[in-house]
Amino acid sequence: MDANRQRFWLLADDHHWPARSHVDYRSACRALHLSSERSLGAMVADAAAVAASALERLPHAIDREGATAWWDEAASALQVRSHLPAPATLLELPERPQDFAPGHDDVLYVALADRLLLHDLRGRWPDFVLPTAGFQAWRVAAAAGGGAWLLERGSGRLARLRGCLQAARPAADYAATTFRPDPENADAPRLHLAPALAWPAGERPQAIAAHADGRLALLSWFGDGECRLRLLEADARVLGAAQTLAGLRFAYALDWLGDGGIAVRVPGRRDAPVFRPRATTEPLTLQPAGDIYPLQPEAEEAPFAHRLDQPPRYPVIGPALEPLHRLSVSRLARRGEAANFGAGLPHLIDSGDAATVWHRLYAEARLPAECGFVVWLAATAEPSPAGIVDWEPHVFGAVPAEELPAGPLPRAAWERLPSELPGHPGLGAWGAPQPGRAGLWTVLVQRHGRRVRALRGRYLWVRITLHGNGRDSPEIAALRAYGPRFPVRDQYLPRLYHETEFGAAADARVAPGEAHSTPADFLERFLGNVEGWLTALEDRVAAAHLVTDPDTVAEPSLDWLASWIGVAFDPALPAARRRHWLRHAAELARFHGTRHGLLLALDLATDGGVRGGRIVVVEGFRIRRLLATLLGVDLNVEDDPLLPGLVISGNSVVGDTLILGEAERVELLALFRDELASAAERAAVLAFYERLAYRTLVLLHGEQEGDSMAAEHADGLLRRIIELEAPAHVEVQIARASWPLLTGIASLVGVDTWLGPPRPPQPARADHSTLGHGDRVLGVGSLDPRLSGAAAALAPLPLPVADAGADARVAHGRSFMLDGGGSRAAPGRHLTEYRWRLLG
User: Fold this and answer.
1) Average pLDDT for 354-364
2) What is the pLDDT of residues 573-590, one digit of tens each?
3) Can you spell out the DSSP letters for 94-123?
4) DSSP secondary structure, 117-146, as one string
5) What DSSP string runs through 458-481?
6) 168 partner at 20 to 30 Å CA-CA among 160, 238, 244, 526?
7) pLDDT category, 829, cuts 50, 70, 90?
């Protein structure tokens, strides 16, 4: 609400524009923008035959290392080529597979007749066959996080493969005292049929593609080759609404692009058209995006290759794949429309009064050269735009003359402030205002060509037409409509100057060459120029308190505001945390030099590091502890504050009572077993405490996930804050704890333990990693077995042979002899003993 008590209605979010044509809402910059689109032209005459032939071809596959696999009919095997000089055999199969694809878990999924073959690319376990009775997989798509999606061709049913196998281990059984899960593999491979997907009659699915975020895209044909796209969310149970691909027939393959678009293969085209699907519950038609992804002249009519990383690949003549890249050109629609009503529920702008005179429009927009938009307004007494005939245009930027009605029209003027709202930085994502190009624009709401130009009505309806040059587009971040108008003329001038025409006379259009409005109407609009400036000034005066509010003061003025109360910010402190610091300045001053003040300062500097448990301030004596002997644990970590004295003293406890240690064992015994301490020992404890008094340790738990600054800058900032906030007689040390939980080392819960996200496995590094301390020796999941070592890992190894002698039947109660002399050890080994077990 401004100084004249005029309120505004905002149009800025995606749902504020339910009806859009050739216009997109870009969530990244929160702005309306002309769509990227183009026309695809005519299709080839034999598109159906070409698509049918392409669908019968087995897709290729490519891994993260660039190795390419394909089906060799003559060899009845999957062949692979990598950077090594010659092709190699990946997998021999008894029949032609339906499809095969490498998974994100380094498993090759091969769809065969009524079964699925799982081949580990890292050689951790032998091939596994999963029966799929009643389900015939035709297309395979690697699912995010492991497993795969399977599509059945005839019925369109979907299935999700989950689970994994366990690495091969020695055949010996575990001892009865060994704790093991039951069943041994609790996450065995299993096939889940997706809930029944209601495919409309006549719609036939043809291809699938999985996105990294879990979404699944399905391409289908309807009728005479009409192409439809449907999305299935990761946790959804029903198909998304049909999104028809305009201008396409018989598209036979699709794949996701890195920006969320979908590229499709179309018969006869030398490029891959791109479409941008929407999350919608209503059927719609998608126009092809203006992005151009050309294909090589040698490109084959075949599906995209199965791959694990961007970009998509397509096959060319010979067993080779080419990446799909975009040309650095953009094609945008030259004209588009958006409205606050239309499909779905309208976004009502309701003033609550049928006599409302709508006052002014403010738009935050970027208007490149040869770009602009027109805001068409209409007002009604009923909450429906039905029956509106006259729309009133308000012009922003450059708009073709043929798009506008004849006669003088209201045109918006650029304002130097980012927003008419005092202290607001604006909603646009283009940075500082640019004169005549980007920032805030304003225009008085009026009806063109009328005797009285005031626009009256309870409900305001907004329709926007955007105009571009095909290469760039206007961007509209926000549109604000103010009302009801404050009558400056009627409030401050005599009745002589008030309006005298109403009804039909006021609504009458003026003829060419006549006066375009009544004198009173002209005066009102003339005074609107002065009112526009004065209202903005009055608003800034009324909102002067915002200049002294840490939440709303401009960023360049933060240091100026801090100087009022004697606060000087550290240069490394970001602007958002400076605002928090100012907000708590009084409390910081009150508790300066105390533990509470130090904790508050550290919490503000790290954006909640103390509240989140990432930073703990603890007195030094609490870190001293008596440790038991820990066999097999490397405690030689000299820079870890949680392991003090372990290398120097390392007191050991054997059993419950025997204590071996240094001369301070009496002090430590008294400290930890007070009930056994004598008077002399208690005196020693007091002396022990005195030596540790006035010492504080600031523990930084691991990496500061919530800190956007570099580690060295963050540590330097914390050290400077500690020097300023800690009492002068207290010695404060800052140290980084490297382990979240030291099990078996008397961890102090809430002090040297904390919860955090699991650490992803890191590959072992020479001269750096220690086995058993987190880093792992990770295999290479390559399609080429020569790169991954899977062939050697799964090759038959010479095994020991157990031979108990010839089979024999022995009567009950008769003795018999077992002879293990025929047994032999594995090569390079020898037998040392025989162990017999009675079975049954």
Assistant:
1) 94
2) 888 899 999 999 999 999
3) SS--SEEEE-TTSEEEEEETTEEEEEETT-
4) EEEETT-SS--EEEE-TT--EEEEEEPTTS
5) SEEEEEEEEE--SS---EEEEEEE
6) 160
7) confident
Burial 562-584 (b: 16+ CB within 10 A, else e): beeeebebeebbeeebbbbbbeb
- CB contact at 8 A, 231 and 219: no
Given a cut of 60, whether residue 630 has pLDDT beyond it is no
Q: Are 19 and 461 in contact (CB under 8 A)?
A: no
pLDDT for 754 equals 64
Closest C-alpha to 820, from 801, 838, 839:
801
* Cα 413 from Cα 395, distance rounded (Å): 10
Asked if 86 and 784 touch (Cβ cutoff 8 Å), the reply is no
pLDDT over threshold 80, residue 285:
yes
Q: Please, what's the b/e burial string for 108-132 (b: 16 or more CB within 10 A of its CB; e: otherwise)? A: bbbbbeeebbbbbbbbbbeeeebeb
- Residue 688, H or E segment: helix 679-692
Task: Give the per-residue pLDDT at 515.
Answer: 62
Question: CA distances (Å), 97 to each of 118, 122, 156, 663, in order?
Answer: 13, 21, 19, 75
Q: What is the pLDDT of residue 570?
A: 86
| C-alpha span between 78 and 92 (Å, rounded) | 6
Burial of 226 (0-12, 13-18, 19+ CB in 10 A): middle
| Token code pair at residue 590 | 């009150």
Crossing angle of the two packed helices 595-605 and 711-725, in degrees rounded to 10: 150
Out of 354-358, 607-611, 812-816, the most confident range is 354-358
**Which amino acid is residue 718, in one-letter code?**
L
| Residues written for the chain | 840
Q: Tell me which of 125-139, 285-299, 628-642, 738-752 is least confident.
A: 628-642
Do 158 and 149 meet the contact criterion of CB atoms below 8 Å apart? yes
DSSP E strand stretches across 132-269: 137-142, 148-152, 158-162, 190-193, 203-210, 216-222, 226-232, 243-249, 253-256, 262-265
Task: Count the Cβ atoms, other than its own, within 10 Å of residue 777.
Answer: 9
Cβ proximity of 37 and 287 under 8 Å: yes
- List b or e across 72-103, with b for residues whose CB sees 16 or more CB atoms inside 10 angstroms: beeeeebbbbbeeeebbebbebeeebbbbbbb
Q: Where are the domains of the chain?
A: 7-23+333-538, 616-757
* 4/420 Cα distance (integer angstroms): 14
Among candidates 259, 264, 269, which has minimal Cα distance to 229?
264
pLDDT value at position 296? Answer: 93
Phi then psi dihedrals of residue 11, to 5 deg: -120, 105
Is 704 buried (19+), middle (13-18) or exposed (0-12) by CB count in 10 A?
Answer: buried
Q: Show Cβ contacts of residue 172 under 8 Å, excluding neighbours closer than 6 positions.
A: none
Cα separation values, 530 from 333, 527, 601, 627, 628, Å: 38, 5, 49, 80, 83
Task: Between 205 and 712, name the one with better pLDDT.
Answer: 205
Q: By the 8 A CB rule, do 354 and 458 touch?
A: yes
Could you report the per-residue pLDDT of 653-673, keeping only the tens digit for each? 333 333 334 444 454 444 555
- Mean pLDDT over residues 301-312, rounded? 94
